[in-house]
């Protein structure tokens, strides 16, 4: 044991101990070593952005802030929501004190009306932004009540078709599938098929000819003799028929023979008789 205290100065070394097994030490060197091994504050980082340093280490808050930033906007189920108050969720979110944040999600447990639209049990609400409030555009609504209803096979009869249907519309096609229905026309006039309560077969006596094509342009012209008069249209091809009906004959008028020359978007009408006579022209497509 030491007989008396040994004074130590910054330059002193303990080189001789009166008794015991304590080895001689350099106190100043030991103190200096402890000083160099303490935390280096300069190496502590509070920046939540990722860097490339192998020396800096993050603080507790920096670690939490970084982890929180990676969770922002992820889907976060917040439980059931009673929508009977007809308002969007204003609390119970994943933010501080229950603030609603982007990605917070609720499943409707009681139906209600949100922004004028019905929301049903099982539907989901998802916040699109932080603090979405009562703005409909800040929320996504997922409907859970849209279901697939299979065809009722009991209503189908292979030989008799569907029974009990009203307002049934038939889409008819020819064998080649080139004619979608019998009334492929720009006319808006209503057409009705009357189905008599009789057995029978609908059949054509011949192929449909150009006379049954739809009329795509009508109008009045003034015949101009052999000089001709040009009628402009937008058919785009020469697959059409031309019908001329003189209407303005006078006592001395003579139409003569009528001829025409077709092109894709015009037809020139000639007559061998008197000019300046009025006539009606009708252009119809060839079916």
Q: What class, by secondary structure content?
A: mainly beta
From the N-terminal CA to the C-terminal CA, the straight-line distance is 127 Å
Low-confidence stretches: 182-187
Strand content: 25-35%
Shape: elongated
Q: Sheet with the most strands?
A: 4 strands, mixed
Short synopsis of the structure:
The chain is mostly beta strands. Helices cover 8% and strands 26% of the residues. Among the domains are: 76-142, no CATH class; 210-285, no CATH class.
Describe this structure in words.
- The protein has 2 helices and 16 strands.
- It has 287 residues and is mainly beta.
- Among the domains are: 76-142, no CATH class; 210-285, no CATH class.
- Strands 3-4-7-8 form a 4-stranded mixed sheet, with no helix packed on it. It has a 3-stranded antiparallel sheet with strand order 11-16-13, with no helix packed on it. A 3-stranded antiparallel sheet has the order 12-15-14, with no helix packed on it.
- Strand 14 and strand 15 (266-271) form a beta hairpin.
- The chain is elongated.
Q: Can you give keywords for this protein?
A:
single chain, mainly beta, 4-stranded mixed beta sheet, 2 helices, elongated
Write the layout of secondary structure elements.
Blueprint: H1 27-36, E1 44-45, E2 57-58, H2 60-71, E3 76-82, E4 104-110, E5 112-114, E6 117-119, E7 124-127, E8 139-142, E9 156-157, E10 161-162, E11 215-223, E12 229-232, E13 240-246, E14 258-262, E15 266-271, E16 277-285
Parallel strand pairs: 1-2, 3-4
Antiparallel strand pairs: 4-7, 5-6, 7-8, 9-10, 11-16, 12-15, 13-16, 14-15
